UniProtKB/TrEMBL annotation:
<protein>
    <submittedName>
        <fullName>Asp23/Gls24 family envelope stress response protein</fullName>
    </submittedName>
</protein>
<dbReference type="Pfam" id="PF03780">
    <property type="entry name" value="Asp23"/>
</dbReference>
<comment type="similarity">
    <text>Belongs to the asp23 family.</text>
</comment>
<dbReference type="InterPro" id="IPR005531">
    <property type="entry name" value="Asp23"/>
</dbReference>
Length: 150
């Protein structure tokens, strides 16, 4: 693999011509991959519990969510011609994890390659949690409290 850049550094695109060159920031690849992963039915969210908690905290801080290039659950390495992507996902209970991972991988590769022209050499997917809608709904409705005294 060619030398990689961090999320904050731009990567050069392979089609540098006499008329100029095109650069694509790694954060752009990161956003494309995150959106493409979320498009697949059965993906509840991206990121593990800790990264989701930090993301929620960052959004509550004034100016903390604006312009941020760090997408929870999406890490990328971008070279001059290639990209590698790591995803941390939370799946809906009942979804086939194997089929879901295949669909996410295919959608991410298609979107990134189509939009950037970079060759995606790998998409690693880590399933960190399963979302259980019944438990979330039960926690949202507090149980009635009966007074102990009259």
């Amino acid at each position: 693999m060619t030398p990689t850049t961090t999320v904050s550094s731009p990567a050069r695109l392979a089609d540098e011509t006499a008329q100029g060159k095109t650069t694509i920031a790694a954060s752009v690849v990161q956003k494309i991959a995150g959106i493409a992963a979320r498009e697949i039915s059965g993906v509840h969210s991206l990121g593990g519990g800790v990264s989701r908690a930090f993301g929620a905290l960052r959004e509550r801080i004034p100016g903390g969510g604006a312009g941020t290039t760090n997408i929870a659950g999406v890490q990328v390495e971008v070279g001059e011609k290639q990209a590698a992507i790591d995803l941390d996902i939370v799946v809906e209970y009942g979804a086939s994890i194997v089929e879901l991972a295949r669909a996410v991988r295919r959608n991410v590769i298609t979107a990134v390659e189509r939009m950037t022209g970079l060759e995606v050499i790998e998409v690693n997917i880590a399933v960190n949690d399963i979302h259980l809608p019944e438990i979330e709904a039960a926690e949202a409705i507090p149980a009635p409290v009966t007074p102990r005294v009259e």
